[in-house]
Design goal:
Blueprint: H1 12-28, E1 34-36, E2 39-41, H2 44-74
Antiparallel strand pairs: 1-2
Amino acid sequence: MEQQAKRVNMKIGEIVLGMLLILGGLSDLGKTDLAHFGVPILYPEVFSRASIVAGVFIIAVPWFIRSYRKDNSDK
């Protein structure tokens, strides 16, 4: 018996925004001074890690919610 993979609709905007946050956080990781429009960011290491976590959540949370709803609607 072959199990078919369940398809979950992901919006392209969610994927793009999540990847931008992840890539931005990775590019700033390890820098000692960051600024946004000339205003210094106080804790650049925390900001970089928070950007990475936010990007992962923006991709993962809607996927889990939609897959859960799809599982419940199939029954």
